[in-house]
Specification:
421 residues; alpha/beta; Rossmann fold; formyl-coa transferase, domain 3; 6-stranded parallel sheet; 3-stranded antiparallel sheet; 36% helix; 15% strand
């Protein structure tokens, strides 16, 4: 059983509040992978207490521009980068190098279900705040550590960022245009190693919580950005294991499907993604090329892949004959997957994106609005809720220290005087 105290917010026991409305998370993480994970948990209803450095907070608060906007349109002190990963949380400031700060962490860990941290290996152990130290206080605690290389091994002590892991984890080797077309290795346009690690960490935490319902025991979770970015390449790597051939870059083409690429039309580019032989026949109908449909060389995907050097130039000539909108209309009429290449302004003008409500505007208590991206988790019985904007630094100090831990107003003020909070 968890040693968790009653949640400090008044809606904690409301039926349907969220799938994780009974869970409290102590968030000692910063930047992206950890906060991405804990925002997932907050979206699902968990109470997330984010512990930040006094005066500065999470590094990403200062990663601007762009900045959040105040009610009068002026820039706030928090960046939109920070806002993207911290909605639904309560912020407290705490100096964990101070003995009193360490004691607060211990007390919070005693009444929490989950702790997430991404400190350097050994940093928290110095203060007795590692898993072995805190499990003595709360045997049911699920403790998740997120690092670049994991807790052990020859590289465990190395620093690293997403860009580094995209490189050494192999993702960049298969991302970018072909070398014979003047290309080279290219990183993905978002910090995919961090995001995937945050997602994998969320899954691991939920699995550990589920196991705790049977065993009554928490456990330690060791998450590494390197592990996650390598795992992301699973379908390519499995092929390499089978045949020993190193996967190579195909640019916007596909190693195992043709046509599955960008085509230049008369006025703009579109993506066409033919995923099977039936769609190939439909595609040929849409582009008025019955000759290609009837050619036995292209009837099966294997032939289209091995013969792409002859087939694709023929398709490219045909695709230049009409405009992008004409092709999209013709292809969609035949149920062939395709689409325009949207920038983000165009994404949020898309009727399906609007219908799915993928933009979420949350009013901040001090005024202004934080516009964030909706969670893709769609649960009918316990839907995701967006009740709390990304917090102002230290907005919940009095609530957490006073209401949850029972500190008096004088004690809290003394903490401020001593620089603990």
């Amino acid at each position: 059983m968890s040693l968790k105290a009653e949640r400090s917010d008044s809606n904690a026991t409301v039926q349907g509040q969220g799938a994780l409305s009974h869970i409290r998370v102590l968030d000692l993480s910063r930047v992206l992978a950890g906060p991405w994970c804990t925002q997932n948990l907050a979206d699902l209803g968990a109470e997330v207490i984010k512990v930040e450095r006094p005066g500065r907070g999470d590094d990403t608060r200062a990663w601007g521009p762009p900045w959040l906007k105040a009610a009068d349109g002026s820039n706030e002190s928090d960046s939109t980068y920070y806002a993207a990963t911290n909605r639904g949380k309560k912020s407290i400031t705490l100096d964990i190098s101070h003995p009193k700060g360490q004691q607060v962490i211990r007390e919070l860990a005693a009444v929490s279900d989950v702790l997430v941290e991404n400190y350097k290996i050994g940093d928290l152990k110095r203060y007795g705040l590692d898993y072995e130290g805190l499990r003595l206080i709360n045997p049911g605690l699920v403790y998740c550590s997120i690092t670049g290389y994991g807790q052990s091994g020859p590289s465990a002590q190395k620093p690293g960022y997403d860009f580094v892991f995209q490189a050494i984890g192999g993702l960049m080797s298969i991302t970018g245009e072909r070398d014979d077309l003047g290309g080279g290795a290219q990183k993905v346009g978002v910090a995919i190693a961090d995001v995937m690690t945050g997602m994998y960490a969320s899954v691991a935490i939920l699995a550990a919580l589920n196991h705790r319902t049977v065993s009554g025991q928490g456990q330690y979770i060791d998450m590494a950005l390197l592990d996650c970015i390598v795992a992301l390449g699973g379908n390519q790597i499995t092929g390499f294991f089978a045949n020993g051939k190193e996967p190579r870059r195909y640019g916007n083409a596909h190693a195992s499907l043709v046509p599955y690429q960008v085509f230049h039309t008369a006025d703009d580019d579109i993506v066409v993604a033919v995923g099977n032989d039936i769609q190939w026949q439909r595609y040929c109908e849409a582009i008025d090329r019955p000759d290609l449909a009837a050619d036995p060389r292209w009837a099966r995907v294997t032939g289209r892949v091995t013969g792409r050097g002859d087939l694709v130039p023929e398709l490219e000539r045909t695709m230049r004959a009409r405009s992008a909108i004409e092709w999209v209309q013709r292809l969609e009429a035949k149920d062939v997957p395709c689409g325009r290449i949207n920038n983000y302004a165009q994404v949020f003008q898309d009727p399906q994106v609007e219908h799915r409500g993928l933009r979420v505007d949350i009013t901040r208590p001090e005024g202004g609005v934080a516009s964030t991206i909706a969670s893709p988790l769609r649960l009918t019985g316990t839907p995701v809720r967006y009740d709390k904007a990304p917090p102002v630094l230290g907005d919940a100090v009095d609530e957490v220290l006073g209401g949850l831990l029972g500190r008096s107003a004088n004690e809290i003020e003394q903490y401020r005087t001593e620089g603990v909070i």
